[in-house]
Specification:
- The chain is an alpha/beta fold.
- The chain folds into three domains: 115 residues, Immunoglobulins (Immunoglobulin-like), CATH 2.60.40.10; 221 residues, Class I glutamine amidotransferase (GATase) domain (Rossmann fold); 56 residues, no CATH class.
- Helix content is 20%, strand content 30%.
- The strands form five sheets. It has an eight-stranded mixed β-sheet with strand order 4-3-5-6-12-11-10-8, sandwiched between helices. It has a five-stranded mixed β-sheet with strand order 13-20-19-15-16, with no helix packed on it.
- The protein is elongated and about 130 Å long.
Length: 435
Amino acid sequence: MPSLAPGEAAVVTLTAQFPEAGLHHVSLRLPTDDLPGDNQRWDIVDVRDNLRMVIVDGEPSTDAFQGETDFLALALSLPVGESKSFHIEIMTDTEWAASAKSDPDLIIMANVAGLTPSQADQLKKQVEAGAGLIIFPGDQIDPDSYNRQLFQGGQGILPVQLESPADEPITGLLLEDNSPSAVDALRQLSAPVLERIKIHKRYQVRLSTDDDPDVRVLARWNDPGASPALIEKIVGRGRVLVWTMTADKSWTDWPTEPSYVLAMRETAKAAARTSVGQHELTAGEVLHCPVSPERRVQSATIELPGGDEPHPLTVEGESAAATSEGSSPNKLSLVWAETYRAGLYRLNWQESPGGAASNQFAVNPATKESDLSRLPIDELKKRWRSVEPEIITAFVTADSSVGVRGQEIWRTLAFWLLAMMSVESCFATWVGRQR
C-alpha cells in the first residue's frame, strides 16, 4: 500500500483473474487503525462466459474489409486463449430496426444515417437499464437526426452535439488524465505508439455548456485545438461512448495498427453491461433477491457473516403456479431486512423445476460512518428536529478553561428549601399551641 499523508488520496489498481464463470467474492482489508469498522470491504463479481454485442453496420460491403465494421468486428472477435469473450452479431440498420426486442449488453452503431423517435426511445431505455452504446460517425450520418433524437439539448443520452466532418490531417492521440477510464489500457503502451496514430478526417463536436459531471472527454487528438477523440456519458446504469473517427479506414489508418485492437476491445468492455452494484448493499438496507416467478421457491435460507446458523428468508410475491389461471405472475423475490452486519450474505433455495439455486450479496458499512469531520452547528441543530437545544462550544487550551453558559439554579433551590423549612416550623408551632 502507498504511504499517504493525512488528507491525501491514491488510486491502487488491483487485478484478479477468475478461472470460471459465476459469482465470485472479493475482499480488501486495510491495516488496523483506530476505526476498525471500515477497514474491510467486500464485493461480488459476476463473471460471465461472454458479452453479447450487436454491431449495426450503416454501410456494409460484400468485399473483404470494405464494410464499415469489418476491422472493428475482427478486433472484437479475436479469442483470448481458449475463451471467446465477445459474442458478436452484425446487422444492417434495417435488420436492427426490425429487432426491437433485442437487448444485448452492448450496441455499436457505425455510420448509421439516422434514427427514428421509436429507435431513440428504445436506445435510451436500454442504456438506462445497463446496456452500453458506442457510436462511430461517418460521411452518411445526419447530425440533425442525432442531435434531435439523442442529444436533446444536452438532456439526452448523446454526450456531445454533432456538427460536421472536418478534413484535417492529425497525428497522435492524447489520453486525458482522468483515470479510471475506458482507455486506461492504452497508458501501458509506449508514447511512440500513440504518437503514430493518424487521421485525416474527424467529426467536429460541441460539448454542452452545462457542467455535467456525467460527461467526460477521455481522449483528444493532437491538434492545436485538442479536439475531442472519445467522449463518455453515464446514463442511468449504462454508458455511451462517442468516437469522432470512423470505425473503418475511410478517415484513418489506425485500424491497421495493433493498438486499434486493444483500444476497441477495452472500450467495448468498459461500455458493455455489467453487474456492478447489483450485488452490493449498505448495512441497514433491505436485501431483495429477484427470482423467476415461473418457478416455485422452497426452503429459502440465508447465511449471515460470522458463521451463524442459516435463517429462513421471506418470499414476497406469488409464483406463476400460485396465481389463478390466465393472470400474470407477480414479481417474486427473497427478502432479508436485518443487514446490520457487514460482510457476505449467501442465499440458498430450491426451485421447482430447476433444483438447487444460490446467490451472494456483499454488505458494506456506510461511508458516512468513516467521516470524522465536525458537523456545523446549524446542521447539528437540524438533527434534533422539533427540539431546539442550546449549543455550547468548549475551547480547551493550556491557558483557558471550558466556558459554560447557562443559569445557576442552586441559589433558587436553597431559597425555596429555607422557605419550606420556615413554613414547616411555623406550622408545627401553631399546631402545638392548639393542643
